[in-house]
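Researcher: Before we compare anything, I want clean individual predictions. No alignment, no superposition, just each chain on its own. First chain goes here; please echo the sequence and then give the structure tokens.
Model: Echoing the first chain and its structure:
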Amino acid sequence: MRKLVWVASLLMLLAMMFVSCAKQPQKMVLQGLVQGSYYAITYYDEEGRNFQQEIDSIFHAVDMSVNLWVDTSVICKVNRNEDVALDQIFIENFEVAQRAAALSDGYFDPTISPLVSAWGFSAKNPHLPPLTSHLIDSLKQLVDYRKVRIEDGKLIKENPAMKLDFNAIAQGYTTDLVGALLEAKGIKSYIVDVGGEIFARGTKPDGKPWVVGIEKPAADWDSERVVQQRVELEDKGIVTSGSYRKYVERDGKRYSHCIDPMTGYPVEHNLLSATVIAENATWADALASICMVMGMERSLELIKTLDGVEAYYIFVNESNELETFATKGFRNTD
């Protein structure tokens, strides 16, 4: 009997030693600036590997493909009608943009670049021409996603003056590329945030969920950031699109960066921000942009038809007060 007790105690001691010697996941945090904004990446890895170099390579590849602020990027060459072979990043952004355009009946349109530039949301157009209804109408003729296509690795435009803009999805796409890299490295617990476009995989090692904050609409672009709502996120992408930080002022009036392809003018409605949760950050990015252009009522009808998609709206009610609305599956933590 005494021998059995001794054996049991030895086995328990060995088990405790095994647990204590097992590698505990190390928390890795990478932060910096990219694509005119920030990035913040947190992941847990037993080996404590640092993937900064590989992630920087992703950022560079995206910039060289779809960044409108890089003169030598593929998209800039396409917009200048230069002979350029399309890479996989460009093609995938184009396909998602066309999918979003068709889903929204053109309220999302990747050929909106001429209007974006005319309204002053482009670094390439520092000297803006006077905006007239005639100019807007003429630029609208260059906006139609159905008049661009890819054939044999080349972009075909029905009108050479048409130009593309993937800014409404490029950061979400970058987030998903970083996530794909981490998963290829065997990482099962991570959260990637590129300029507010977020994807979270799994939970933290202690089983607690990832929690992200939705910003309360601010008065100006440089106002202090305040959290309006916290949300649990697991194996999903989340993106907020808002009209309160990205704007231009012309003739004493503030205009939102959300331009309606149907009218050619920035939107004017009571929706201040739309947050969308979807299967990945790219699609959440596209849908959040659609919501901001469509407005709450019309976009909510669309969101309700999509499986696995949830939305959270912040808007101004008839009493000029902030009000919120969330679809049933939106997981608030408060």
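Researcher: Okay. Second chain, same rules.
Model: Second chain and its structure:
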Amino acid sequence: MQTEQKEGMELIRKNFPGLDKVKSEQFEQLFPLYSDWNSKINVISRKDIGNLYLHHVLHSLAIARFMQFAPGSVVMDLGSGGGFPGIPLAIMFPETQFHLVDSIGKKTLVITEVAKALDLQNVRSAWARAEACRGPYDFIVCRAVSSIDEIMKWTAGKISKKQRNKIPNGLILLKGSEAVAEIPKNNKKFELHAIDKWYDEDWFKTKKLVYVKA
């Protein structure tokens, strides 16, 4: 096992102890899969592939620290790129359906092939813009796609009114420190969470999770 893969899996097991064998094996496969695809299609910065688990997988799984998706939930990953946060979340929540959407076709090809290699039956991908996806979805998740205002415009009317989770349906966004300025003051629909309350790795000190109740 390559050093990056071994150290990455130690990070995953440290922050998510008790993973079953299937999930552990799927997370282990992420490094060789993305290393191979990244050599063909640049879905992750080539300088950053060694940080796959810290910067991409663990970051995506901050959403799993925020909430546990109920079985049968339907989640859109908007602007998924090569599959983040959708692929790690699909591994973690095999009974939740994930629709990974990106406007760049070669990136959705990577999503499709990675999901196939991992035998993720709960993932489908779409080469499309958010406006073309009807939904409805219980949650829409995304990572560093655009401003909160823009994301809200693109996803208007796509959140299901049927509630099946403990947390009301809405948007879950992974952002940087810019999120503080993007959230309207005194608006109870918005919640801002510092990701470093869940992880003690230094890289997460400026990372935020924003929840927007639909």
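Researcher: What stands out in the second chain?
Model: The chain has a mean pLDDT of 94. Additionally, Residues 65-213 form a domain with the Rossmann fold fold (CATH 3.40.50.150).
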